[in-house]
Amino acid sequence: MRQITILSFLLISFFSLEILATDPGDGYKVGDIATDFSLKNIDGEMVSLSDFESAEGYIVIFTCNTCPWAVKYEDRIIDLHKKFSNDGFPVIAINPNDPSIKPGDSFSEMKVRASEKGFEFPYVFDEKQEVFPAYGATKTPHVYVLDKERMVKYIGAIDDSPRDPESVSINYIENAVESIRMGKTPDPATTKAIGCSIKSKKA
Amino acid sequence: MKFIFSLLLTSVGFVAFSQTSDKNVRVFDKFDQMESMLSTDSDTTYIINFWATWCKPCVKELPYFEELNSSDEFEKPLKVVLISLDDKKLVNRKVIPLLTKKNIQSEVWLLDDTRYNEWIDKVSTDWSGAIPATLLFDKNKRQFEEADFSSYNELQNFISKFLEG
After folding, report:
1. Of A24, A157, A203, the CB nearest to B117
2. A142 interaction partners in chain B (CB closer than 8 Å)
3. What is the set of domains in chain B, with CATH numbers?
4. Residue B144: in which H helix or E strand, if any?
5. pLDDT given for residue B23 in this prediction
6. Which residue in A103, A132, A168, B151 has its CB near the most CB atoms, within 10 A?
7. Closest Cα in chain A, distance from residue B31 (Å)
8. How confident is the model over A80-126, as pLDDT tens digits?
9. Non-local CB neighbours of B111 within 8 Å, separated by 6+ positions
10. CA-based nearest distance A159→chain B, Å
11. Inter-chain contact B87–A203, Cβ cutoff 8 Å?
12. Residue B30 exposure: Cα atoms within 13 Å on the Cβ side
């Protein structure tokens, strides 16, 4: 009996290692076609990119309630949606965190935060944690700007001044959207910033 | 001499002292001021951990790094440096109280440079920017890990592998 226990423990460990072996560096690179998804929005409706029939592109933002960096960007995310959704570039915010690790990122807390801040864009929950690994998101906030064909055109930060909106010198997402609208390649097409690791039992 | 030493320190960053503790945190405004310290010609292996007071998994693993720093189980000399990415305005209010509470004796620096895109790749091109993150280096090699350690044992194994490799 004891041997069976040890054996099953070993088997379980082996399979856990398989999961751990997924390189967090996997995921989309600029030029890849991003997958569509169907995730539950805070209003209970399922949301997919294909729902936005007149979209010229998409601003997909992995974000959450609890990461201080994500919170600092909330107002700027609201502004981005106001500024670009009418031009066909809606914001779709995705919470990738496992609420059993981060209770503040539960679906009910998402509803509370969205209503407090008056989010006018979908705030959907990656409950099965399948979308963020497909994209290759590792942290919140982590942004993917896609064109109409869902081709990844920009990956990275929102701007170059997370702590202080007054000190922004480069607005990466605005630049990316403007470039796509003019048929140009965003420059920079990728940026990096400090963020909170996405909370997952798999990682 | 002491005066010159303090003058040298203040010219690079400044050292914040809390009134309740002798713990000090060396503050850097720009990554450039720190960059030359992220490599070595000596026989010491450096373990650099990037963390912040607001990052729960980071705070959880601080004691493991502290244990490593005071450990004499490794034959080669090790040095742990904990680099806080908190706002420097919070040094006395948040960073030092947490270090005191956790009884951290390891060296602590604070990097207040939020132009992240200009320096994250200089630490490691493997770093997406998520924390916690840990850099190991000696005079011959470097290794970067963007993950947290769930126990001291796990960190220990990670270091042993690097030292053997």
Report:
1. A157
2. 128
3. 2-164 (3.40.30.10)
4. strand B142-145
5. 76
6. A132
7. 14
8. 999 999 999 999 999 999 999 999 999 999 999 999 999 999 999 99
9. B28, B31, B34, B83, B84, B85
10. 9
11. no
12. 5
